[in-house]
Amino acid sequence: MKNLISLLLCVFTFQTKAQTFKNPDLLFDPTPYGFSHASSVKTPGEFVYISGQSGGLGKNHSLSPDFRIQVKIALENLKVILSSYNLKPENVMKITILIVDHSPEKLKIWEEEISKVWNGKPFPASTLIPVPKLALDGMLIEVDAIAFKAN
After folding, report:
1. pLDDT digits (tens, 9 = 90+) for 57-78
2. Are 125 and 97 in contact (CB under 8 A)?
3. For 38-60, how does the pLDDT look when each residue is reduced to its tens digit (9 = 90+)?
4. Are 112 and 22 in contact (CB under 8 A)?
5. What DSSP letter does each residue of 44-88 carry, written as one string?
């Protein structure tokens, strides 16, 4: 019985500390920009690789010409997939953002919207790639991610 309790305590400890996010003091603070410099996983579990999610709404993939609306929808689409694995945005370890005709104004919109979704939780490691065009006409943003689910 004592061994079982020790094992359960050990497993619980590993599960609660499975994910870490780091922003070393020697580097700039990336949190105002909606990301962490690095993230890691220290325990066995399941990685979830999420394909690029666009700002297309619903099964018809309706695309608004408004960049902010597409950002909101892309993040909602990401949350739908995470939810299907019983995960939340804070389980995302790495995110890649592709933005058509990237600009400081679009970056500010991205930062505002990701901050709302992560809601004070540590941001994932991140790469933003400016692109001239995405897969479908009218797509202004695409977001893919890698999430982790502890066993």
Report:
1. 988 889 999 999 999 999 999 9
2. no
3. 777 777 888 899 999 999 998 88
4. no
5. -EEEEEEEEEES-BTTTTB--S-HHHHHHHHHHHHHHHHHHTT--
